[in-house]
Amino acid sequence: MKGEFEFINGIRRTFPVPDGITGIGDDCAVIPQTDGWETLVSTDILVEGVHFLLEDISPYQLGWKSAAVNFSDIAAMGGTPSGSFLAIAVPRTTGAGWLEEFLHGYRNISGEYGFPLLGGDTSSSPDRVSICVTVLGKAPAGTSLKRSSARPGDLICVTGFTGDSAAGLDAVLKGRPREGEVPYLIDRHYLPHPRIAEGMSLARTDGVHAMMDISDGIGSDIRHIMEESGVGAEIDVDRLPLSDELRAYCRRFGADPLDFALNGGEDYELLFTASPQASIDVPHTVIGQITENRGLVWKGSDRDFNGFRHF
């Protein structure tokens, strides 16, 4: 099978997007409206055994995360929430209590971030849980922050901490004792908080150019911005924002925090580029710079980091 990027690019070539619409290649499709707004649409799927382990994650956490990873796409465009659609397939042996707790988690995050559930579909499945969520948002025409707008000289910035979610997943997979920093890291993996308010603020800030959320790790996601914008990048690994909990976990278990921060993914923080003169109110860390050279340079390391790939 082709790699994930090659597969997506093949779909992109097969289904050209009509003029005036932003389609495959960004966090959301952007559809212009006649009233001075544009509609944002995104869909993500979560499959048992690939995106979550049903024996470890609670139904509440799964409901929350299923919504959160999709809401993050609206944040990545700087959009305002409009609503969501949920499609879920579960084995016939799934109990009513499990489904109620799943919906409890989905409902709580939807209420917190202003995403009403507007519809969807339900089905049985042979043996695994599969979840697909579609989200809608809106933004004033021409204000959505896309991956294709980075400019040479821009600073590369990130909100929050990177690597916590990947370390949480590592703890789950390796059966680490649920003590010390481990519960915090697992919560970061199971209960992410999409940066909706931060994304809206950045979209209103002059000098902020390109943006996306960190779903597959900086090592992968910065390459999306580079490809769509036709630019290069230089990232200083010594400037990555690493939490005290991540550092403690890596010391205790002999891991490299760079692997989690750059290859792990599922942080759902915002990765964006901005002019050095931009006045940014959102807390963030500058980790590098956009360059004219199409290459990617990792300052402070002789390794290459490619992020997470599905296949």
Describe what is shown at a glance.
The chain is 34% helix and 25% strand. With 311 residues, the protein is α+β, with helices and mostly antiparallel strands.
Structural class: alpha+beta
The residue-averaged pLDDT reads 93
Determine the N-to-C terminus distance: 8 Å
Q: Tell me the number of strands.
A: 11
What is the ordering of alpha helices and beta strands?
Answer: HEEHEHEEEHHHEHEHHEEE
Unreliable residue runs: none
The helix tally amounts to 9
Please give the largest β-sheet.
6 strands, mixed
Mass-distribution shape: globular
> Strand portion, in percent?
25-35%
Radius of gyration: 19 Å
Kindly state the percentage of residues in helix.
Answer: 25-40%
Question: How is the largest sheet built, in terms of strand order?
Answer: 7-9-6-10-8-11
Please describe the topology of this protein.
Layout: H1 4-14, E1 29-32, E2 37-47, H2 59-77, E3 80-91, H3 96-113, E4 117-125, E5 130-140, E6 155-158, H4 164-173, H5 182-190, H6 196-203, E7 208-213, H7 218-229, E8 232-236, H8 244-253, H9 257-264, E9 270-274, E10 285-291, E11 296-299
Parallel strand pairs: 3-4, 8-11
Antiparallel strand pairs: 1-2, 2-5, 3-5, 6-9, 6-10, 7-9, 8-10
Describe this protein's structure.
There is one protein chain. The chain has helices spanning 4-14, 59-77, 96-113, 164-173, 182-190, 196-203, 218-229, 244-253, 257-264, and strands at residues 29-32, 37-47, 80-91, 117-125, 130-140, 155-158, 208-213, 232-236, 270-274, 285-291, 296-299. It is of the alpha+beta class and 311 residues long. The protein has a six-stranded mixed sheet, with helices on both faces. Strands 1-2-5-3-4 form a five-stranded mixed sheet, with helices on one face. The protein is globular and about 55 Å long.
